[in-house]
Every structure is written in C-alpha cells, then in structure tokens.
Amino acid sequence: MKSLRALLFFGVLAIAASAQAQGAVTKYVRYSHQGRVAYGILVNEQIRELDGSPITGAAPTGKTVALTDVELLAPVEPGKVIAIGYNYKSHADEHARDPGPHPGVFIKLPTSIVGPDADIVFPQGAGNVHFEGELVIVIGKTAHGVAKEDAADYIFGITAGNDISERDWQASDLQWFRAKASDTFGPTGPVLATGLDYNDLLLQTRLNGEVKQKQRTRDLIFDIHDIVSFVSQFVTLEPGDIIFTGTPGATSAMQPGDVVEIELEGVGILRNRVSSSPTSE
Fold first, then answer.
1. Alpha helix (H) ranges present in the chain?
2. Residue 142: C-alpha distances to residues 119, 126, 260 (Å)
3. Residues in a beta bridge with 242
4. Containing domain of residue 129, as a range?
5. Scanning 227, 260, 268, 269, which has its CA 20 to 30 A from the CA of 74?
6. Which residues of the chain are under the pLDDT cut of 50?
7. Do 243 and 262 sit in the same domain of this protein?
8. 60 and 121 assigned to the same domain
9. What pLDDT shows up at residue 1?
C-alpha cells in the first residue's frame, strides 16, 4: 500500500513538473466534494487532489475524483482583488475615455468573488448591471516594487473573470464601492491555468449564447507585466492576490434569468446565471 501511494504521489508530481518544464498547460481547480473543500490538478476530466493550494507548493495526496462529482469553486481565495479600467482601446473609445499614462486601478472586494455556476445576484436597487469579460492575473509570490522585466516571475497563472458593474452607480457614486464590489460581482474560474501565453489569448463573452465581446489579450493597452509592475509600486502583492486586467469593446445590461459566459482561450468557460435581487430583511 505504501509503495502504491508513493507511485501515485510521484506520478502526479512528475506530471506537474513536466508540464512546467515543457511549457505545457496545467489546470488547477478548487472544489467542494462530500462536504470538504480541496485543490487539485485537472487531468482528462479527473481531479488529482492536492494537500493544499498549488500557489504554496502543495503536493498530491494520491486521491482522485471525477470532475462531474464535484462543485467547482473560485480557483483562488484572494486577500486582495485589484482591477484595471479602460485597458482596451475598444472599451475606452466606447466610453470616450482616455486611458491616461498608466493603468487605471480600482479595488474590488474578496467577498465579491464567486465561482463557476454561482448566481450573480443583483443587490437591492440595482437595475443597470453589465458584464465585463476579463483575463485575471493570479499572483504567485510576494511582489513589491517589481520592475516590468521581472514581473513574469511573480505571476503564478491566470483565470477568467467577470467584472460585474452597475453602471448607474458607477456614474453617480463618489467611489465604485457598490458598483464594482457588491457580493457576487466578481465571478472567476473555472480553472487556474499555468503555462499559457497570457499576452495573446482570445477572450470572448456570450450572453444567452450570443457573442457580445471578442478580442485578443495582445490588444491590452497596458499589458500584464505593465500592470503587475505598476500596482506593486504602491501595494505589496501577496500569493493568491488577483488582478482583473480590463474588458474589451461594448458591454450591455443583464436581466434575471440570463446566462453569461466568459471564455478565455486555454482556461475554459466561466458560466454564471443572473438572479433577481435578494429579499430585503
């Protein structure tokens, strides 16, 4: 039994190490199964469990579970959720905004983060709630004052995200607190992927099956390394922190019952349903 466990341990470890060495894609998931939450490596519809977060160097346990038997959760639990606005020319032009000389940074909240298939719930009074499909950076190690040329060393991987935005509140409020950071306004997933060329991936958003946004990440005004470097000059980034990098083109309002899908090449499809506002207590 011990020898079998050892074989499983080193076999899964070899898969991850080989993928990194060859530049292949490794997909990590965070999931709930039989009342417990765990991390794992997704391989051919099977999840190979890890004994903790991959960002902190977790090791395989030797256990496996079918993808169909689990509930996928947001792939990371960030301490900080940072976001960039007007970072595609197509979106900046849509809003008649000049992106300026450096990334436009704002803050979301960790409590806004939900996973695949979780409902997007409109808060009381929200009526003009838009989707924003984005690539999301996941930080791998503590970063402070990082130079652009070194930024890649601090990036663990990427996932897909939806920077939900209540446009009326965004226009009228002093800060974007409720417009951008309300509960469920930050879906992410379905996986945390490493080994992808994140500087040139196809990003698409579909609303009820209709393509609404479609652009490659090479069109970012401030690329991923620019963003990590700039943010780290002011805020210490820590393992597991995430950065939404901006949305392309036009966005539009969603309605209860709608299904929104963010598809990021190599990462997969982040799918969420829109729910009506909660009952006030």
1. 2-22, 89-94, 167-172, 177-181, 224-232
2. 32, 36, 33
3. 81, 138
4. 81-275
5. 227
6. 1-22, 280-281
7. yes
8. no
9. 45
pLDDT digit string (tens) for 178-207? 999 999 999 999 999 999 999 999 999 999
pLDDT tens for 216-233 read 999 999 999 999 999 999
Residues 23 and 97 occupy one common structural domain: no
Structure tokens at 167: 């446009």
Alpha carbon of 133 to those of 206, 223, 239, 271: distances in Å? 9, 16, 23, 11
Q: Round to whole Å and give the CA distance between 25 and 164.
A: 28
pTM: 0.91
Residue 5's pLDDT is 42
Please report the pLDDT score of residue 99 as a whole number: 84
Report the helix count and the strand count for the chain, using DSSP H and E: 5, 19
Number of domains in the chain: 2
The full DSSP string for 198-259 is TTS-EEEEEETTEEEEEEEGGGBSS-HHHHHHHHHTTS-B-TT-EEE----S---B--TT-E
145 three-class SS: coil
| Residue finishing a domain among 72, 96, 128 | 72
CA–CA separation, 40 vs 48, rounded Å? 5
Question: Domain boundary at 72, 91, 125, which?
Answer: 72
Both 120 and 232 in a single domain? yes
**Strand duo 81-85 + 242-244: pairing:** parallel
Residue 281 included in any domain: no
Residue found by looking up tokens 């060393």 in the block: 153
Sign of CA dihedral 218, 140, 112, 119: positive
